[in-house]
Fold this sequence. Notes:
By secondary structure, the protein is of the alpha+beta class. It has 24 helices and 13 strands. The protein has helices spanning 44-49, 51-66, 82-91, 108-116, 124-129, 132-135, 141-144, 170-175, 187-197, 209-212, 214-218, 221-225, 244-260, 272-281, 304-310, 350-364, 366-379, 382-385, 406-410, 412-422, 445-456, 463-478, 487-508, 510-525; strands at 23-24, 27-33, 70-75, 97-99, 156-161, 164-169, 205-207, 226-228, 236-238, 264-266, 286-290, 319-323, 338-344. The strands form 5 sheets. It has a 3-stranded mixed sheet, with helices on one face. The relative contact order is 0.15. The model is unreliable at 1-21 (pLDDT under 50).
Amino acid sequence: MASGTVLAAGGGLLSSCARRGASTDGHVVLKTSGGWPYGPMPTKKDQQANAGTKSYADVLGAWMDKNPGVTIRDVKLDVWNQQTLSTAITGGTAPSMFPGDVLGGWNRQAVRSAMAQGLSADVTEHLKAHDIAGKLASYVKPIWEKWQVDGKFYAAPWIYNVGTGLHYRVDLVRELGLKEPTPDWTWDDVRTLAKGLTKGKRKGIVLQGWGLNMRMSADGMDFHAKLPAPATNWNWRWDYLSGADRWVPLIQGMRDMVYKDKSVLADVSMGDGDTLAAFVRGDAAMHNNTVIFFANTPGSDTAPADLAARLKKPIEDVVGWMTQPIGLNGRTGTTQGQVDLVGFSPDMDDLALDKAISLHAWMKGPGWVEQKKATYAATKDPKRVFDSADFMPLFAGLVEQMPVTPDDAWGKPFMDQVRRASRIPLVPNEAFYFPAELSPGPTGTARDDMTSRWANERGTLDLRADLAKMQDTMNAQARSFSSSTSDPDFVKAARGYFGAHDTYWRDNAPDYHREVFSPWYQNSVLPALKG
């Protein structure tokens, strides 16, 4: 959801084979930070103190027995900070493995650009050697396959989840006689529900910055405003004013929730942990976030399961989750599956990369099964087996090997919605159609600033003037950048991208396609791509 741009820290581009020598004489040191994604062998004292630590040590030890000469060493680095991580990579001090999405601030286009710059090692052949693609669950494969950059992979898949949606208090909805969310609900339904759930100090919903934008996103405001412009240096221009009659009521609707209904706890500076904590504390009865937060490990202070335990009810009677509301004219697909990434230091040589991928394949497959079996044997709690993203494991066939199921852990109502969400067709994503951008580009600051204004400025705003100002600012900024993609390559990619959208919306949202998308596509997009 972030609006990150291409990383350029340290200057220049890196080659994935620019630095070698991570291993000598067959000995490999894999450096990880804070135990992510896998930590060093725990001490005997730590193993004795914690059954989970002991099971991790047993599984890691089994792999190391088969891979003598490998050492895992912990290094101190904030790998979740984009600037810190990129500086470490360009300076040759990065961990061997790190969260790959951080390279681009969780923005897919920026991540791909960072990969093309060589900020993560090419692991294509190593993934093949360990048959990572062949091990993936069916719901993971369609997304993972799109992460190729010019036919190569610069990361490994880490976890899968079905995307974002709204978490809500089932018990309060029923207690107040309100309508429960359904797959076809809209943001008008959300507004009604949030207003009904607001009582005393409790707000109906808590939203961070991107959550405040979701009403506009459901109708594709930013999608429709970004138009191909191959005659310009950056190849894109922004036009928010042409659709202002459509966008202004949506923005005002969001503002009305905040200032008229007073049903929103909102702060654009909030992060995932802030909104989740507010929900679990009872400060708000809904929060908009990725699905995996439903399954936070019990006892973590921000676990919905702990909320249910305090109320002495099954979790399915306290908390529910529903996919994102649909937009006007039946526009769907706002909830989209995602695969988070493990990146690899470009300093690593082939032997080190092979060992890193081997470890990853083991820990996500046989090692995962053994750790989860040990967890269940020690706790008899299925919620600790299928916590976080593990209720939909990365690899196929793992759940079937367990003594319990995700339904046992989180309830069938939740898992039914998760399984339904996993079948939502993937909307064509710009990042996977255009060549990875090698040049720095415009930031999303102007758009973010306007979100902050709409969320925080009281009184009557001239929203049409705001759209005009944002449009002018973004276009002025874009004029100072030059794309690394040639005009012919851009036009070819754009035709494929928008053509894929034409097909997608015709098949999945025919009313929206007929009444909104098709006229815009014919009158605004195609003329820009001719000749």
